[in-house]
Write a structure and sequence with these properties.
By secondary structure, this protein is of the alpha/beta class. The chain has helices at residues 21-25, 52-63, 255-274, and strands at residues 12-15, 31-34, 45-48, 75-76, 81-82, 87-88, 93-94, 99-100, 105-106, 111-112, 117-118, 123-126, 131-134, 137-140, 146-149, 154-155, 160-162, 168-171, 176-177, 182-183, 188-189, 194-195, 200-201, 206-207, 212-213, 218-219, 224-225, 230-231, 236-237, 246-248, 253-254. A 10-stranded mixed beta sheet has the order 5-8-11-16-19-22-25-28-30-31, with helices on one face. It has an 8-stranded parallel beta sheet with strand order 6-9-12-17-20-23-26-29, with no helix packed on it. A 5-stranded parallel beta sheet has the order 4-7-10-15-18, with no helix packed on it. It is globular and about 70 Å long.
Amino acid sequence: MNEIHVVTPGDIVFVDHPKYYDKALNSAATIVLINKKVDCPDGKALLISDDPFRDFNKLTQHFVPFNAFAKANTTIATTALIHPTASLGNEVVVGENTVIHANVSIGDRCIIGDNVIIHAGTVLGGDAFYYKRREAGYDKLLSNGRVVIEDQVEIGALCTIDRGVSGDTTIGHGSKLDNQVHIGHDTVLGRHVLIASQVGIAGCVIIEDNVKLWGQVGVRSDVKLGEGCEVMAQSGVSKDIQPGQAVFGSPAINAKEKFKELAALRMLPNLVKKL
């Protein structure tokens, strides 16, 4: 089971909006759960449903049922140090020389690599913020993915990293997160990414290697931050950023251009007086 942006051959994906029909039907997925009778592409199977969102949740409940806080099949390296107040779920893996501090919560099937440090109060593997509007309110799309923390990562205190809806939310090798950082479902961080405090990253974001995000940056869903780019503090990222580019502002644009714009704005009061 997988989302449309990460499907591979053999996967099942659901689609319930005409905007995404072509993308789902032409994706790598082998099975498409869809709410319209259409021609079946070669090599695929279609499941026709009046409500694919509902039926995708049924599949999640069947294949990855909620297990009432079980702690079975957890694998912890003998050199790992875990505070007694930390909570680990079912099928969690913790690597060599990893340190997990007080009151850390790690959800089912999360993978923690070697030489990782996770500071107090952090939550890994919370459910995705993913809902469908109904007449009676919001329906939740159930999460069956994981959080994968690669080797040499350090995660500050009170961070929250949501599991993938169906795939993995990944924090790449050597990346460092400050305190109070949020990372949404299915987001993928590359190697040696640096994120300062109070950054919020939505779901399905791709952040390539050596990117820097400074304090209170916000990143919308479905964007890509190119390798080595830098986002200055309190910026709002609403579209892709090219590799190596420095951006600032909300919406974030080229930093030099933004600074020129701010300098021009500071000159306006004097200009008005002269007029």
